[in-house]
Amino acid sequence: MSRPSRLQRQVLSLYRELLRAGRGKPGAEARVRAEFRQHASLPRSDVLRIEYLYRRGRRQLQLLRSGHAKAMGAFVRPQGPPEESSGAGASGAQPDDGGGLGNPLDSMGSPETPPDGR
Predict the structure, then answer these.
(1) Hey, which of 54, 55, 69, 80 has its CA 20 to 30 A from 9?
(2) Which range among 48-52, 62-66, 99-103 has the greatest average pLDDT?
(3) Could you count the other beta carbons within 10 Å of the beta carbon of residue 34?
(4) pLDDT tens figures, 4-29
(5) Pair 64, 22: CB distance under 8 Å
(6) How many C-beta neighbours within 10 Å does residue 115 have?
(7) How many other C-beta atoms can be found within 10 angstroms of the C-beta atom of residue 113?
């Protein structure tokens, strides 16, 4: 087996530093491990993406080391369509006039933002 490259050593060092920085913060260690596991299957030849993730990890490390971070969490996008609860007083189908101020994901129409988040 060959020696680890400089980038590999930097990534492993970042992983250890993130784990150390997140020791006293709830959810930080699990989030760091999950993030690294998620990207572990990246091909070694995808250097641009690896370097991007490395820079992103460096910024997260700075945030964790600052005194402002108390815990670490993540925003999770729902996998399936949201379930509608049948409330009392709602009889029949609601008319879709297209100008409602309700949640755009509650109707059968497309949401206001595209699925790719742009």
Answers:
(1) 69
(2) 48-52
(3) 12
(4) 899 999 999 999 999 999 888 888 88
(5) yes
(6) 8
(7) 10
